[in-house]
Amino acid sequence: MPYHWSDAAEEQRHAASVTLGQHRHRYAYAALVVDGCYHEVSADGRYLCTPGTLVLHPAFHVHDNLIGRSGARTISFPLDAAASEFPGYGVYHSADSAALLRLARRSTRAANEALPFLSRIAAAEILPPAWCGSFAHALREGGRISELPVSREHASRQFHRHYGLSPRAYRAEWRMRRALRLLGDGAGLAAVAADAGYADQSHLTRELRSKTGMTPKNLREHAGTSHTF
What is the pTM of this model? Predict the structure, then answer.
């Protein structure tokens, strides 16, 4: 949720010890953990989400949820322009979560308007081994990958375990995020392809369509209706 735009919040219960698998949603949304817990795993890192955790997802943010042994219950609602001070992905703990839950059940508009006024602190990422974090930084920034202290096979397994993506998929994910930002800023397609790291405009179009189901033109229009990276 939301696979489509909706004015209603959605409460979901997740069975114990299940893995939802990598997925992304077309619209930006907030997820508040009501009870239970899960690990949120994405190209942004790994976080333990417990009751009171608020996760803000931009449009097309790919992530996995590893549900804990007691299961989990969440309430999700679409983000709109009222929450514009929260660009990008964020994981927070809030002492006001009970009040936000009441608002979300009553009105998604009221929940959005309350977001900037919540007491909140950024959640701490569960850190990977130092070499894994350095590896991720190099992939993300397009820099040179230094020699790893472990075998390539072990590095790939450990990397996937922490970020939920293979190194190759991780690099592609950050490349797509750069493209979405540039499209939202109004850059031309040839410039977007070059600046984001695609081989050419056709490569950009193929990859965006495969990951989002939308063309660059459609994505540019979509950027005006939902928070992207």
Answer: 0.90
pLDDT at 145: 73
Give me 225's structure tokens: 């209706």
Domains of the chain in start order, with CATH, are 10-122 (2.60.120.280), 130-222 (1.10.10.60)
> For the chain, how big is the Rg over CA atoms in Å?
18
Count Cα atoms within 13 angstroms, Cβ side, for 175. Answer: 24
Amino acid type, 152: R
Average pLDDT over residues 167-176: 95
Q: In sequence order, what DSSP letters do the residues of the chain get, joined into one string?
A: --SS--SS-EEEEE-TT-B--SB--SS-EEEEEEEEEEEEEETTEEEEE-TTEEEEE-TT--EEEEEEEEEEEEEEEE--GGGTT--S-EEEE-TTHHHHHHHHHH-HHHHHHHGGGS--EEPPP----HHHHHHHHHHHHT---PPPSS-HHHHHHHHHHHHSS-HHHHHHHHHHHHHHHHHHTT--HHHHHHHHT-SSHHHHHHHHHHHHSS-HHHHHHHTTTS---
pLDDT digits (tens, 9 = 90+) for 37-92: 999 999 999 999 999 999 999 999 999 999 999 999 999 999 987 666 777 899 99
Query: Which amino acid does the sequence have at 89?
Result: Y
